[in-house]
Amino acid sequence: MAIPQLAWNQVRPAPVVLVSGTEGFLADRAIRRLRDFLKGEDPSMEVVDLDADSYAAGELLTVASPSLFMEPRFIRVNSVEKCTDAFITETLSYLEDPAENTYLVLRHNGGVRGKKLLDALRGGLGGGIEVVCAELKKDAEKYDFAVNEFKAGARRITPGALRALVGAFSDDLAELASACQQLMDDTSNEINESTVERYYGGRVESNAFKVADAALAGRRGDALVSLRHALDSGADPVPIVAAFAMKVRTMAKVAGNRASAAELGMAPWMLDRARKDLAGWNEDGLARAIEALAEADAGVKGASRDPVYAIERLIGVIAARGRL
Amino acid sequence: MWSELTGQAEAIALFRAAASFQPGAAGDAARADAAQEASASGAAASGPANQMTHSWLITGPAGSGRSNLAFAFATALLSGNPDGDEATAAQVTARSHPDLQVLTTEGVIIKIADVRETVRRSHYSPSVGRYRVIIVEDADRMAEHASNVLLKELEEPPERTVWILCAPSEADLLPTIRSRVRSVRLRVPTVADVAELLVKRNDISPELAERAAREAQSHIGMAQRLATSAEARDRRQETLTTALEVRSVSNAVLAAARLLAIAGADAEAITEQRDAQEREHTLRSLGIAPGQAIPPGLRGQIKAMEDDQKRRAKRSLRDGIDRILVDLSSLFRDVIMLQLGRTDAVINRELEGTIAAAATRSTPAETLATLDAITTARHRIEANVAPLLALEAMLVSFRRG
Questions:
Q1: Chain B contact for A249 (CB, 8 A cutoff)
Q2: In this structure, are residues A129 and A30 in contact, taking their beta carbons and an 8 Å threshold?
Q3: In what order do the strands lie in the sheet with A129-132?
Q4: Which of B222, B293, B353, B396 is most enclosed, with most CB atoms within 10 A?
Q5: DSSP of B208-253
């Protein structure tokens, strides 16, 4: 008998709730939602936190044993993926006979540790439920998440505004959620593109490869803007130069070379991409770009007083396709 | 023990005189002190009392036998006999002499903690002979703050401690270190000297020995490797032909990858076997049976060993690339010699035809630019630029119409 698997926003009370998956933000939300719901039912509920990675024998029994007035208990157990052996055996024996009016929430972050416990739980021991909080990888999933956020807040938002919002916060779900919250708190009527533009205009998620792509396409301004965004969101100059080097190296291998993808040791799409990137480049330009790359690599590693300027110069050379 | 040191007659005479100096013979401790002071302040060694001092610096190009000379001098000092004796020589070779300390590294730099430990132990008095000898191989691998730890010790070491530093040139050390040591310069041994040594010591045929000595540009260790390993010769040959075949940017990038692979293979040939042996040895001394899981308590030690091996591999790769760059500069040196009309002193005589063809393809100015590119690449690799990138930038400038 398998237990029901629910999404984070469908969580409901059960003697034992397994919250699994790597998306910590959704898991926190699910647990909070459950706690708020139960606290609303009975404000005298006692909330206890346990850490499974430093669990000592007997702890679970101590906190789960009934008290004089029989208040309900809400026991949150963190990091079950790093639990001690004592925790596995004691939780299994507890699940044979769960305490009355007690809700045990197990937070498991993925991995194989505690498999015995997970298998028993999923097999129906203790009559629990599982809340799956898998990472949202695709843009469509993030879009749906944002749609639900606004639906939960009973607010209207235009599809264009939603797309702009998801595009600006594509890396971190927590950031996206707080951006949604801020928009709902700060505005009163329908949220449209101009609202999003006013709040989050000009913010773009950027990484080393986006900077390199913009520069290789000859868009110097865009490349400089996304360089600044990448640096501001914590990117280090050294890997940025390495990303440039990788791209230019692939292009140089392909340039003036009729060899097939297999002969060059790269995937066919990489070859096509490099051929496309090569438009507008010539031999001397590539040579100058490689020289500039070595110079910039030395620059970001201490030869230049300003590593960021070293990259900006590199972007200049590459965006001009080596013709400076 | 001095006989294996090729072509350094002056330096050997100097060290033998120093080792035969007997402070007690004068019977006057005060005079010996005065003599020590005089030589510490840089006075020329004139009288017998001036021939010994407490801090030495041996400089000479890579492969000229700096450390060998330092160890020979140490043997002479430790045994109290200018020609050394067999027992001491054996102990010095095994690095197990109680009064000998060696500060060296297989990583890129000498760690400051090691320097401090050596300094601490330099204050023990000698247990067997008259001197405690400390040899710092590769003194140029000390960063500035590590060098500063030595300043006080070099200026005024304990009475019976002798420091011997080795470095490629005086310019590699801080001025403050240079002013505290007595410097002995080695010369580059001639090709004939090195070849003769190879014939005598390794039983190599004279032709091969001559070729190895010439191609190694009198670097004794390198010459020995080239003479004894056919693979090392092949790798060198491949390096040179790869570099001469660069015609386009695409060639250059592929050639850089090839050169890096050659350097990697070269480095691996040196370190791979040692790493495996070392690991086995460590596991055995920790009491772990082959194939047994490593207990958590010992993982730290294994990790430390692996980190050391990684550092060694990195150094080894850098050394490999450096050898390649030296080989390449010998190649372009030959090219420019031919372009300027000198045909007598070609290093890579086996490639003479290819080199002559290359000489007609470019002008001397272009060849000089190429040599500059090689120097730049060496500087860049020293400054921690990704080796592949530095090689690519260098090879790109090799392109000729």
A1: yes
A2: no
A3: A5-6, A129-132, A16-20, A102-108, A73-78, A46-51
A4: B396
A5: HHHHHHHHTTT-HHHHHHHHH-HHHHHHHHHHHHHHHT--SHHHHH
Residue A131: strand pairing partners: A6, A19
User: Residue A157 gets which letter from DSSP?
Assistant: B
What is the model's pLDDT at position A324? Answer: 66
Taking the complete model, does pTM exceed 0.90, yes or no? no
As for the ipTM of the complex, it is 0.72
CB-based contact, A116 to chain B, within 8 Å: no
CA angle B163-B166-B167, nearest 5°?
A: 140
pLDDT in tens, B191-225: 888 888 888 888 888 888 888 888 888 888 888 88
Q: What SS3 state is found at A287?
A: helix
Tell the CATH topology of B51-181: Rossmann fold (3.40.50)
* In chain B, where the domains are located: 51-181, 189-228, 244-292+299-396
Diameter over CA atoms, chain B: 76
Q: How far apart are CA A175 and CA A195, in angstroms?
A: 17
Binning pLDDT at 50, 70 and 90, where does residue B271 land? confident
Beta carbons of A301 and B253 less than 8 Å apart? no
What does the alpha-carbon distance between residue A291 and residue B195 come to, in Å, rounded to a whole number?
40
pLDDT score, position B42: 42
Residue B38 has pLDDT above 60, yes or no: no
- Mark yes or no for CB contact A293/B389 under 8 Å: yes
| B380 neighbourhood in chain A, CB within 8 Å | 294, 297-298
CA-to-CA distance for B180 and A240, rounded, in angstroms? 45
Q: Determine whether the interchain pair A287/B254 forms a contact, defined as Cβ–Cβ distance below 8 Å.
A: no
Q: Would you tell me which residues 314-353 of chain B have a C-beta closer than 8 angstroms to some C-beta of chain A?
A: none
Option in A283, A293, A297 nearest B248 (CB): A283
Interface of B with A in 235-264 (CB under 8 A): 248-250, 252-254
User: Strands B100-103, B161-167: parallel, antiparallel or unpaired by DSSP?
Assistant: unpaired
Q: What span, in angstroms and rounded, lies between the C-alpha atoms of A232 and A296?
A: 20
Is B171's Cβ below 8 Å from some Cβ in A?
Answer: no
Touching check for A255 and chain B: CB below 8 Å? yes
Q: Do B386 and A302 touch (CB under 8 A)?
A: no
Each residue of A91-106: pLDDT tens digit?
A: 888 888 888 888 999 9
